[in-house]
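Take a look at this chain, tokens included, and explain the fold to me:
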Amino acid sequence: MTDVQLGMPELPAPDYPAEVRARLEADAREVIARYPDSRSALLPLLHLVQSEEGHVTRTGMRFCAELLDLTTAEVTAVATFYTMYRRRPSGDYQVGVCTNTLCAVMGGDAIFEELQSHLGVGNGETTEDGKVTLEHIECNAACDYAPVVMVNWEFFDNQTVESAKRLVDDLRAGRTVEPTRGAPLCTYKETARILAGFPDARPGAVEAGGSAGPASLVGLRLAKGEVAPGRVVSPRSADAPQDESPPTHPSSHDAPQRTSASDPHHPAGPVAEEGE
């Protein structure tokens, strides 16, 4: 007969301190009241507990389960399914480099590889100063601005290796960084609270949302019968204008890069806490 090694059962997650619990519960009740079925509030509640600690802890999942009358297993299943929920401590700024098809072709792979070296971290890892967590992400529906880097879900369009390095250097140095479009940048915890459904009270933040840029509206203008913009010709084409210079940063076709998804040293995917 094979011996079976039984470890010690995992202790229940500790509760929040009383004052933190009271504050979060008041916010949670406000969120739950928006839904006819309380369990529908689980996603915003996970953002709420993430705004408290910067990631979703076992304590946070216990809190959500108790308020929604769910099991911790049900909450854990959701928290581990969506990559927007962090399972371990993260930096103040979540820097995501899109490495999906078009962004990768336009230089996203090169940007991600260079940032790993520049910051000294791998996929999903955080710099020693706790400022930046780097990860490669899937499509952000901004292909007309490829390659795209997102910081706490705000867009930084048309990036290059050098501009991306300046971006993370500015974030770590505490310098003001302005997204290409959308609201001003805030910390990851502040972003999580906004995603939980609470208003962004910063002056001018809502008005700064903006709208689609010119590259996104080309098809709409053509559909309305407006004059088409000048044709963009690839430098590889025979009829390419001779005065056009090639891209300054290599694409995956010009200089093949190892895709981040195949990096065996830093695999993607949710990270579970020990014992889960």
In short: The longest strand covers residues 93-98.
